[in-house]
Every structure is written in C-alpha cells, then in structure tokens.
Model the fold of this input.
Amino acid sequence: MISIAKPIIGKDEEKAILEVIASGQLVQGPKVREFEARFAELCGVEHAVATSSGTTALHIAMLAHQIGPSDEVITSPFSFIASANCVLYVGARPVFVDIEPDFFTIDPAKMEERITKNTKAIIPVHLYGQSCDMDAIVEIAQKHNLAIIEDACQAHGAAYKGRPVGSFGTACYSLYATKNITTIEGGMIVTNDPQIAERARLIRSHGSPKTYEHVMLGYNMRLTDLLAAIGLVQLKKLNEWNSIRRANAAYLTANLSKIKGIVTPKVRDHAEHVFHQYTIRIPDRDNAAQKLKEKGVGVGIHYPTPIHKQPLYQQLGYSDVLPVAETASREVLSLPVHPSLTKDDLDSIVQAVASL
Ligand SMILES: Cc1ncc(COP(=O)(O)O)c(C=O)c1O
Done:
C-alpha cells in the first residue's frame, strides 16, 4: 500500500531525544526556546510560542487577541474543524465565507458582505499548503480594523509574493505527525506583536510569569523539550522535503492532467505551494477512492463535510448555503505526495488513476 502520509522520524531525531533525556531538562527548557527562535526565523517574524497542538495554538491565539462572547470571526467552511472550533472555545461565533473554486481557500470577494459591527478577526486557512489571497485579505482587514489570525497548520514554509506565510498577523501551525514537519503532537504561534506573544506565553502556562504566581486565567498547553528537540531536527529538513513534495506534485500534474475528468491542483500566481496535500477533483469521487485503495493507493478526503454542515454546527443552528465548499467536499480526493515516494510509487499512482 502506498500510504497517504508518512512521518519521517529517524536516527537524527532519536539522537536528539536521547540527548534531552540525558540532560534532565524535559519541559520548557532550552530546546523549546531554541525551537521557537528557529521557527520565528522560518516565518520571518519576531516571536514564536510553542504549544501542545495546532488546536491549542489557535485557541490561545483567540484568547491572546481577546476575542470573546458576542464577537464574530470570519473563517473558511472548507477546513479541518479546529479552524472554526477555536472560535467556539472562546464563546464567539464563527462566520463562514465560501471558498475560491480554483484554490479551495477563503474567497475575499465574498468576505465583506459577512462583516458586521461584531466582527473582530479573519482566520484565513492556507489549505493544502497554499497561501490564501493575502493582498485582498490584508486590504479588507485594514479597512475594517480586523485582526488576521492565519491558520497555517498545513503550510510550513509556504510563501505569498515572496513573503513567508505566517507573517501577515498572528499565525498558528500544527506539528501533528502527518504535517510537512512534525513533533508528533505540537503547535506554534508566531507574531510580530510583542503583547500578543506575551499573552500567548502566559495563557499557555496557567497565566504564570513565574513559579506559583498567576496573573491571568491560563491553561497547560505547553510543548515538551523532548518534542521540541524532534522539531529542531525536522526544521532543518523542511526545505528539502518541501522541494521533493513540489517535484512529486509537478510529476503527478504532468501525468494526471492528461486524464479526462481529472482536475489537478492549481497554484496561485506568486504563491510558493508546499503541497501538504495533493488534491484533485475527480468524478464519482467515493467510488474512485474505494477503487484506488483496492489498487494499493492510499487516499484521503479533505474534507468530506464542510464545517457548517457538520452535526455540531447544525445543532448550533447554522443554515448557510456555501455552494463552492459543498461541491468541493463531494469532488476532492487527496493522493500521496509525501517525500518518501519513489518514482515507481508515483508511476503506480498515475496508472491507478488512469485505469479507473
Ligand atoms: C487547517 C488545520 N487547522 C488546525 C489543525 C489542528 O492542528 P492539531 O491537529 O495539531 O491540533 C489542523 C490539523 O490537522 C489543520 O489541518
């Protein structure tokens, strides 16, 4: 079976973990601080705050921006549920804006009609490793005085017009096992705003600037030194792995675009795509997914149900009609694109899709 994702964790990571264990500094020690510094460099920003997951990074970002009950936050309905649930965690209301059909990211042209006097922030989700249309989103945010909280959970190393994703406001990353780099579980908040960074650090660790002093309500959402040590090793490999992902994507596109009915992923002008997922549109998707699995090709569906149609959101009374996201959820199919694929694997994937 050619797997849809394959975490690469080897001898370098093993050595790094053993060093931390031998050092005795297992939590919130030098490795977390070093990992934060290197991650901030990746995004071209001043501050980074490591967290226990991408979800906790988003939750902390909401709290650090002081978003709360009666506030509204604009986000994409076509994402992993955490992109919207982080808004619910703080008692605010996610407001969904439909996506662009070519890029699967939030459509800025449909954003302003959903802004009200209660709107506080926009969460653009850089889906599949590709940046949203940030020029348009920044313009709208500035015009309406809204914070930008990027969900860059799938976009490590991506860029827009030469500027790293994650540098447009506050941004959140996931370091879950299947991401382009991983700490197994983990996350990161990055920002240029020192106050947001300071608040995020406090919220991450029980509102505690020093041992047993608590100046605000916080949580335990920390990353361990053990996991930060893995992250440091992975970070060094990110550029190479992203290049391989791009080359794999180019190979798949060159071959799959010849097949009738298949729509291959489009790359936005001036965007540096890092292909966390390689996602096509395909007729009779569910049947195709089943047949590909039978032929030994692991596939994923990101995402079969748009967030506003999830039972949780239906229970909350959401009745949005968002046709582009709803159509995408019926047509998308992710194929393996990870850096461990061989040329034979890529050819097998192409053949399997061609023979459907
Ligand atoms: C777009 C997006 N947002 C948020 C998350 C949440 O990250 P985590 O699983 O690390 O909590 C993910 C993870 O899959 C994601 O893909």
User: Anything to note?
Assistant: The chain has a mean pLDDT of 98. The CA atoms of residues 263 and 281 lie 5 Å apart. The radius of gyration is 20 Å. The first strand starts at residue 47 and ends at 51.
